[in-house]
Amino acid sequence: MPMVTVSISPLQAAGIRTAVDTGTYASSSEVVREALRMWDAARKRGEICDVPRAANDPESVAKSSRCVADMFADYEAEKRRHN
Predict the structure, then answer these.
(1) pTM for this prediction
(2) Mind listing the pLDDT tens digit for each residue in 6-62?
(3) 3-class DSSP state for residue 81?
(4) Which sign, positive or negative, has the C-alpha torsion 8, 4, 60, 77?
(5) What's the rounded Cα separation, in Å, for the pair 27 and 57?
(6) Secondary structure of residue 58 in the 3-state scheme
(7) How big is the chain by its Cα radius of gyration, in Å?
């Protein structure tokens, strides 16, 4: 699997550590892969802004400006409700 290095905020790092420490995820890589799958699915559904498209169509920003962090929080809350 290819390795990618990214910079995240201390708050984001703490959230990942918490998810692993509480046993919600087995590793930090699992958390990030899940977040990327959710981001990709949301983009495909048109729920979030596609930056290259938004540059050519400013209206698309208004139509799909939902924050990925909010979507992830909603997903986690839904997951907890079902467990």
Answers:
(1) 0.59
(2) 899 999 999 999 999 999 999 999 999 999 998 888 888 877 765 555 455 555 544
(3) helix
(4) negative
(5) 38
(6) helix
(7) 15
